[in-house]
Amino acid sequence: MIKGAHINIFKLFIDGGWVMYPIVLLSIVAITITIERILVVWLQSSKLNPEKFAELFDATMKKYNFDKMQTADEMLSYVKEKKRSGVGAEIMKDTLLKFKDGMAKRMNPIEIKQWMRGAAEAKANTELVNLEKHLGALAVISNVSTLVGLFGTVIGMIESFYAMSQAAGGVKADQMAGGIAVALVATAGGLTVAIPSLILYNWIKGVIEGFVVRIEETVTSVIDVLSE
């Protein structure tokens, strides 16, 4: 019988049955994905901070007396630095290269703007998806861990009731309650993994979307200035 005042976590884990092992494995995978995605977003943001890039771009424009070609050349050199290499730098680089290409082809401002925007969107479609790599697995883990826990509980209930039916002289209420409580441990274990995984999934997704918006705003402002 399980008494609330004397809960032994290790014993509960053992009582939960074999399904507790895949639940623990799922929790380890969830933690690993969370740490990896946080590091990726942090590194990408530190390599090329969108707000700092916008400030540097404005300062460079003033430095060259609003000469767009010279500004584009200097900003290209900046984003091509090895330490800047990343999602934001790649998008900025393609955008600036398209500006220079458009100027060389003597395009009008509207054409140059569309030319740069098309390049930025195309690059973003290939680069930004990498930020969400493996993230979907967190949502899957949230669902799977719940189902694995529920499956363990169903198996435990079946075993418990079967044992009760085979017991001579019937089963006492406290023994029945104890058996059911043990069976529910698997569901509790599954939810312990599922709830944090779902919260982390939505949180990290929000952080990534926020970073993407910051890049988009900076790219848009650069395009607007260069195509004026």
Concise synopsis of the structure shown:
With about 230 residues, this protein is mostly helical. It contains 8 helices and no strands.
Describe it:
The chain is rod-shaped. It is built from eight helices and no strands. The chain is 81% helix and 0% strand. The protein has two domains: 4-43 and 135-212; 48-131 and 215-226. With 228 residues, the chain is mainly α.
Give a quick account of the main beta sheet: strands, pairing sense, barrel closure. none
- What would you report as the Rg, rounded to the nearest angstrom? 28 Å
Number of domains: 2
**Terminal residue distance:** 77 Å
Give descriptors for this structure.
about 230 residues; mainly alpha; 2 domains; 8 helices; about 80% helix; disordered N terminus
Helices and strands, with pairings:
Elements: H1 9-15, H2 20-47, H3 50-63, H4 68-79, H5 87-104, H6 109-127, H7 135-166, H8 173-226
Helix pairs in contact: 2-7, 2-8, 3-4, 3-8, 4-5, 5-6, 5-8, 6-8, 7-8
